[in-house]
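Anyone? Bumping this.
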Amino acid sequence: MKTNIIGVYEDENVLLDAIDRLQAEGVTISDVFSPIPLHRVWEKLNLTTRIPLATFIYGTVGAIATFIFLFWTSVVNYPLKFGGKPLNTLSFIIIMFVLTIAIGTIFTFLTYFLREKMYPGKKVELAVPRTTDDQFTIVIERPLSMSLEEEKKINALLKETGAVEIIETND
Amino acid sequence: MDNKLQVGAKFNIAMIVLIVVGLVTVIAGFMTGEATRTWANLLLNNYYFLAIAIGGTFWLAIQAITQSGWSSAFVRVPQAFSIYIIVSFFLFMILFLGLHDLYHWTHKEVVMEDPILLHKEPYLNIPFFTIRYVLFFALWIYLTQRIRKLSLKEDELGGTKFFEKIEFTSKVYIFVLAITFSLFSFDWLMSLDPHWYSTIYAIKKFIMAFYHGTSIIIAILIILNKMGHFPMLNKMHMADFSRWLLVLSMIWGYMWLSQYLLIWYANIPEETVYYVPRTMGEYKNYFYSELIINWLFPFLYLMWNRVGKNKNAMLFLVLVLMVGQWVELYMSIMPNTIESHSITYIEVGTFIGFTGIFTLVVFWSLSRVPLIARNHPYLEESINHGH
């Protein structure tokens, strides 16, 4: 069982400075929640994601699978000549193009939902409800082994860097 | 920060040498009886560099309309392209001497015997052709120079008044460009084969201009950055530029397919006549390399996230795209003019000459004004982009 210390900020620039300050003091930030995408947070926290790679793989597989499907339907299984065009034709490209996008998008969403344990109709679990609106939060993990002094130091740092509110939650 | 570009005498001499090489090639081309080939090459290179200037200024207009902050430090580079449009006006004038060699609708006796050309005669005749040429260039020069002048005035006076005026002029410019550049492509490239027409031709050439114009902006920025100018050019700017190229490569590929697939599928002889010499026989290799160089390679290359942030990798891509644009125009022009493919000294020489003119004009106009629009309202945002 571990708990989290959450610092709430109201301005993105204050938040970015706070991240610098906390990292300089050796505090490990486990996550940042923000209503808008902030590229610098991404860089500062050294976050990585394999979602684009997954999308690329889904797209490639989708293109190949669609081609095999089209080839099977219009060349192998039911070869019907029309308009004097070859059976294995260029017009496959449009269907491949569209289905590649569809497969890539749908599977990316599914992967994202699985990884984030999300599903339609899931109840919102937010420590700070306004993170989807106009507030930014820094989440710092607090394992049981953390001493009281250390926790106080983190709290003080959060206050000092401009947090408007500090919350502790059970995970 | 407000540094000016110093163009050295060595640079000028080097560029003049390139121009002289081009000039000698053109003269040699005429002397050795290769008149048609020389005219075709002059047309190709004229269109090539005009398209870069048009595409660059279109990019500039888009930045103003969308009020983009990140790019505001670099507006002087595409603004310098607008000077080349003036030079291009005079360079295109030379081609009027070779109209008879290039366009067979200019021959009165041919038109009289050909019902299709006779039908098109009210539009496709030399006086109206000339009027359109003057009108289009006048509009482009007026609007792009207005944007440039306003930006230079903003440097001195500041305030958001000029910013708004530039935005308005840019809006007018993109509408004007949509119509005029389309008709310009019809006039100068599509009428090489006056029996054939395609309405998607214009948008394809327009996207080509936009695509390659943007790539040349990036190349000049990187070169200037390596020389010590534009110190604010960082990885985020580069990433944004590479996204522009990625998107444009996709639009280009889409347009290429839209034109080819429809003509191939409908299979109407009047339309396929364009692709028959291009996909079968001598031009086959150019046909595929056009698609691979302009779409497949940049598309896969830019998908790799690191490439966009690496200046040398981007410079390499721009070099590839320069070849790509040349191949595309070669494919548009040569099958209707010289009819047999071969790359001789004329192709190489004229391209070198025009590269010299373009580089000289752009760097000359860059050296005349401060490199950074210091009173641009979004300059601060551009400098701190990604911080």
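Late reply, but here is one note on the structure posted above: Chain B touches chain A through ten residues (CB under 8 Å).
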